[in-house]
User: Fold these one by one.
Assistant:
Number 1:
Amino acid sequence: MIAAASPLDAKVLVLNRVYAVIRIVDARRAFALLAKQVAEVIAFENGTYRNYDFATWADLGSLQQEFESEEHDWVRTTRVVIAVPKIIRVLGYDRLPKEGVKLNRRNIYARDGNRCQYCGRSFSTRELTLDHVLPRVQGGENSWTNLVCACVKCNARKGGRTPTQAGMKLVRAPRQPRRNPAITLRLGSPKYQSWKAFLDEAYWTVELT
């Protein structure tokens, strides 16, 4: 049985002082920044964005729970109930991230939507592998354009061959994403629609931590 996700694992978009996206953190880290008073909450309400310090945001908890219970994740203590913010702004930080999208297993799975790029079927991450389109035994490298998701069956069928040699076709040619693919997946959820205004193409370097 899989344990239910903790509200403290919910993802929070982090902006710098000038409202540029710098990263995504979990709610634990977001609350730590808010409690230290180095960040504030940015909330989307009635078509506009509003700023709240941590104390004010906490005070709004009971009212939000009454009228917006389905719109938030909730952290409950013996004394208060607090909505997990979707966006926070770090007050004394102006810099932007320098790195591009990281090449790692999580981001490749997100880019390919957990679909095997040979048979086109969707699988859980536990049922997927990474395949080198040009096999390593033939000089293939670890790169965005040479790594794809593949189910165990298709990966075994392809073996140490290229798709052409194995008589297989890719669903689509692999490319390097212009912004973190996990963010694109989250934008498909109504819960994260408030992120869209800040995810301008200029900030495709956003990094998950």
Number 2:
Amino acid sequence: MSLATDLPHSEGRATSEASKTHGTGTEKPAPRRRSRQRRERLFQWLFLVPAVVYMTLFFGYPVVKNVVMSFQEYTTSTFFTGEAPWVGFTNYVTVLSSSLFSTSLINTALFTLGSIIGQFVIGLALAIFFQRKFPLNGILRSLLLLPWLLPLIVSSAVWRWILDKDSGALNRFLGDLGIIDTGIPWLTSTSLALIAVVGVNIWIGIPFNLTILYGGLQEIPDELYEAGSLDGATGWKAFRHITWPMLRPVVSVVLVLGVVYTLKVLDIILGLTNGGPANSTQTIATQSYNLSFHEFKFGEGAALGNVLVIISLVFAVLYLRASRRAVDE
């Protein structure tokens, strides 16, 4: 009788001890899991450290230094004395009130607008053209990338020779065709120099627009065009109702990056005209360069560079907001 009554108690104790043992077995891996998560998080941060250090040294520091310089009287003597007195907004007032700033601002707007329109329209047309299957398609697309791969200073030197008034290849070609009798001063005329510079920059920027827009067109499903053709959406209607809405996010990226890049173009203008003749191709970027490295007024050059950065940021924000509102509607 006592043996029978003791069996349930012994089985209960064994069960409770087993449950405790089982419970502790499940609780032990928790600290291990937490330590493994800590190690993974540590490794993630270690992988990020090189990128953060690189961004800080080569992007963050120059930007901060440029902002600080714009509030100082930073000249060549500063490199020897180490003294750069604070002048507040004097540099900004000086560059914004100069007679050359309005000319540079107008030229910058015309140069950017003309370049972006030309690059985008021609790039989009070529991207749509290369969607078709035909022999040597890939080779031709590869050749169109050459202007993008060449160094800008090399491109400007070649185009300076092509557009030369007396011995330029373009004037010789037009003369042989009987179109002109005397050489056209493409780079020395105040009315033609900016147009010539815009044309060269369009030539350089077409490959970028072509590459990005062609990639965006490849992502549009063919089923949409097949369904649209059943409803009569072919040709221009297909482009308007299918291609353009689907391509709009890519277009936003292309235009924003294109404007930001074009606003700071320096090599092409310096190589072709150096801002002349009579400041007809002077932009904010070239004016900032001249102030810094020709007149050695680093504070004023930095201030003008910051103005260019602000213009780029304002355009990017406004355009992206407008694009997002259009997509929402």
Number 3:
Amino acid sequence: MKKTLCITSMLSIITLGYTLSAVADSTSLGVGVGWTDSPYKSYSSNLYPIPHIDYDNGSFFIDDLSAGVYIYNTDNQSISIGGRYLANEFKPHDSDNHQLKKLDKRYSTLLAEIEYNINTNWGSFSSNVGADVLNESNSFLVNADYSLPIVEGDLILVPTIGINWANSNHNNYYYGISHKESSRSKLRYYNAESSFTPYAELGAQYKLTNHFATYGCIHIDKLTGDAADSPMVDNSAVTSIYMGVSYNF
């Protein structure tokens, strides 16, 4: 069953396999708040509200920032296709660095995805492939992760480790510097190639009553390769925190 509870950082693919919702009620609504720092130089950290929507009828699902349909779904395995909002963006005015202020804006986009999940007695594995369908970044992204839910009474903990791969189009859009930008900003021209981003995460949910629960998550991405080496970047370890309250039906 595909489920996502933690809203990950703007760098992440936001597809986590067997998370809290997989062992909790299948339908819930809530609201949370998220905070993420940025890899970009002198860039403002973001604090933002995030609605929580978790609906799954076995054929169709809405999972916070993603939605889709199952093409195969059993008790412990699923294959789904759908769409997901990719929150990566760069706003020059959000940076206090005078050179980054002269760069072009980079926009968020929508991914079309196919995902496979399998749940076992030893944890859960999830893998997905996504592609930009709005022609903003021409991103092609691949993700794989492993998680192991721990249930102790009303408390659920879900540690997760994973890795993302982003193609050169994605990295060059969000971390590259064109010749025109280089001329304006005096930053060196930079053409970014593909790279991997390993990450670690800890999600938690605590059941307050039969219907209400609190939840939270901390997620850390580690940029590597051309993403980490970009002249735009001075922070290769990016942390995101998310917490909120949900009502389970």
Number 4:
Amino acid sequence: MRSDVPQAVLFDMDGTLVDTEGLWWSATASVAGSLGVLLTPDDTPHVLGRTVEDTAAHLLSVRQAPLPEGDTGDASPAPGRRDGVRRRSAPQHGDQPTVARLLTEAFADHIRQGVRVMPGARELLRELTEARIPTALVSASPRSIVDLVMPRLGHAFDLVVAAEDTACGKPYPDPYLKAARQLGVDPKLCVAIEDSPTGVAAATAAGCRVVVVDPAAGLPALRAMSVS
């Protein structure tokens, strides 16, 4: 085997192995709407690649923004308005654990309707099995979501790190550092495969060599990866 072959390959899940980022966005938009919040492109860094808890906290921070001076809050803003005005008529399920649960349930409902495995994902996973290179799934999704998706991949990962497994999720390096530590490998000798800026930031901070997935091209073959 080449000396520059990674000691382990660490995979993000949503948007990398499976095409679920659109499903996550739709689930988040639905829950946001029930809070009186309309998602916009400005919300992307707070939604894609983030944990359920982080996204819940973001939605609540938007919903609970202070009223502008002189605004009594008597009238609700027009649908879709995002100018920092709190929507007083929004449903009152506004604590973070409840919103996180609603997000998880909505996402799970979308996944149960079917997900598409990204091009090249199964082929790369098969190559890694044949080459006896350890693999880890390092996801910002909760384990309940990971458990729904994994059977669709047909691969036995050596390790799964889900959102609950570290105190800080992506973009912090903790999930990737935990994966490398539990596999017994140096993060610098691992390749992390990611799709979102949040995930890339986490893997880079952990010291991994990062391969960014092009959704149109799919995942690369093993021969295209190195840690040199």
